[in-house]
Amino acid sequence: MVDPKLSVRRRGQHKVSRSPQLPIPSSEDRHMRKENGRRKDLSQKSTIFFFLVYYSAVFYIVRYSVNYLPNPKSLVNSKPTEFTEEQARKHLNYFVSLGPRVAGSLANDVHAANYILETVLKVKASVSPSLKVEIDTQRPTGSFTLDFVSGFGSYYTNVTNTIVRVSAVDSPSNHALLLNCHTDSVNGAPGASDDAVACAVLLEVMRAVTSDHTHPLLHDIIFLFNGAEENLHQASHGFITQHPWAKQVKGFINLEAAGAGGKEIVFQTGPSHPWLASAWAMNAPHPFGTVIAQELFQSGIIPSDTDFRIFRDYGKIPGIDLAYMTNGYVYHTLYDDVDRILPGCIQRAGDNILAVVDHLVKSPSSLLPNPGSYRHGALAFMDFLGIFMITLPMRMLSILNMLFSVGPIIYLARCIMSSAAERLHYEQKIFKGIVIIMSSWLACAFVVFLLAIFVTKCGNSMAFFSRPYLVVFLYGLPGLATLLIVNRVAASIVFKNEDPWMLETIFFDSYLFIWSAILFQINYIQLQSSLILLLCVLPLCLIRCLFLKKIFHHKNDGIVATKVAVYLAALLPHTLILFSLSWIGLDLFIPLCGRLGTVVPPDLVIAGLVALLLILLSHFVLSLIHLAESIQWIVAGMLLLSAGALCFVLSSHAFPYAVDNDITAPQRLIVQHISRTFYGFDKKVRQQDSGIWLNTMDYPGFKVDTGSNAANESPLLPCKGVIEFDFYAYHAQSFNMIWF
């Protein structure tokens, strides 16, 4: 039933109604939408201005936050107890100068290990008399099973571990903090980020910690420079299961990489020991991490693993997993060099690790000696623009989730049960609003997936790989335009003659009901990432539904622009959070498309991610489009830009790979030289052969002309020998070859 107050006649004109079409209203229509001298909607220019200014500000704030790095420190301009990037970068340069450091190689097991020993001896010569520095070289042999991919067993012999223990002379402790990195790299890669920079950081942390003569060491620190991580964690297993010092370890910090440079992200914590993540959140000067990364990583979606699994499963100790994830294009390639590690990147990681280590081993409030005293299950965590980190134990998060999922539903029930005339049949309006919103989500997903399938079938997959901005124009704008069109047209048909602010209120309440129900369901399955959604629903419940309820009431005749500005200001915190997470997600998954294999079309993966991000970013914002006088030029502009992007993708210029000064996005090919010798039961040679085995790691594979004749045109090199076994023997040399 339509409120008679909203269907008024003026100067003999017909009733005011909202057209189901998108044309710009005439001057008479605009005049009829005025009441008491105040507009009830926004002009198209005002709508463009508001959202352009708002999202431009959000974009630049998030961009600054993501790219911000502190100024590097030098030994001359810093205290001895401070971390200095200058010194750490010297260590990094040496490790990278050794070239690829494969486990078992001279570069890794001899040169890198000797450099670490020499550096530790220099540190040992200048430490405080109250400290003791012990050095041990371990070469363990063992075997274990690993629940990774499909699961398998691993056997290793004489892998190399270089271990350093720093303890107090007068009061040695039985409680130690383990700091772990690995010296080895994959074949063919210098491994600057994975993981030479972590070794450099820990060497400098060691120097800074041992230079402090004023704060006594209450607990021991064990630095593990393990030499066989790329062989799927063999060296870390040898330490945690065989070394006598491992028994005193109560917690660990593991340094890894899935990219090159940028910020190190906390992407795994626990298990079931929130005190470590809390210590990081309270003491790291530049906290950066999200529980979403943890849930994604542990779900197996990301094809990678770290020593965290070994310490957790075989050592039964809690820890924190850190990794560089920016610029994942160069991960495990020959382009992972020192030039990718920007100034300030090392300083940031060093400041964070040193501050947390100081707290854990020097502070009387540290829970390292008795971690079980603060064992409250899983911990949800996330940072806000790298300024501070929010942490909540899952038990407390569950209570808050229930409160702020049931609370809005109670609020909506009160609105529906209101006896006021304007609330008559309000539940029907809410239901219709929910149907329209859900329909727009389905339409958005359908359009972006249809585009992704079309691009893939046309043979132009991964055009966005070296041009991440194409994702916005190719999938983002069509998806957003679909959301706008479906919401606006459907609302104009279903809610005829409805006051603009009343219509906006209906859709706001519909969104509030949907997200409260989603929050309730996510809380039921105990996802820690519900913290993100809670922080989105919470401010709107408090601000719009409680503190400023009268301002946003549809009968309030305040200036519409003022209302919109106040509403957008209330949305700003969670818009920044969601925009930041979207940036991080695309920064992770776009380079990941280069090693997802040949089965799953990467355009479908990115299209699905974009659809999900659009739904998250647009919730509670799309209700404002019902205040706009017209959106036809906005939608037309989006579709025009999308059409241009699609034409570019279908052209011959959309080559997916690039290696230049702006971006390095190579195609990954595994090239293996195989020499095989087959033996019979009589131990006589039955057959010998050899050849080159090329294996592509991305979806386009050999469909893209990247110079497939290069292998035939390359000069032949003699094989260095064959490793023989009974019945079957082979010699293989494998490395990443980059075609461009």
Automatic annotation (TrEMBL):
Signal sequence, start to end: none
Superkingdom to which the source organism belongs: Eukaryota
SUPFAM superfamilies the record matches: Zn-dependent exopeptidases (SSF53187)
Keyword terms, alphabetized: Endoplasmic reticulum, Glycoprotein, Hydrolase, Membrane, Metal-binding, Metalloprotease, Protease, Transmembrane, Transmembrane helix, Zinc
Membrane-topology descriptor: Multi-pass membrane protein
Subcellular location: Endoplasmic reticulum membrane
CDD domains named in the record: M28_Fxna_like (cd03875)
Membrane-spanning intervals of the chain: 48-66, 384-413, 434-456, 468-486, 506-525, 531-552, 564-584, 604-627, 634-659
All copies of domain Peptidase M28, residue ranges: 161-357
Major localization class: endoplasmic reticulum
Boundaries of every Endoplasmic reticulum metallopeptidase 1-like C-terminal domain copy: 664-707
Endoplasmic reticulum metallopeptidase 1/1-A TM domain ranges (all copies): 428-644
Region spans: Disordered: 1-39
Family: Belongs to the peptidase M28 family.
Name of the molecule in the record: Peptidase M28 domain-containing protein
Record organism: Clavelina lepadiformis
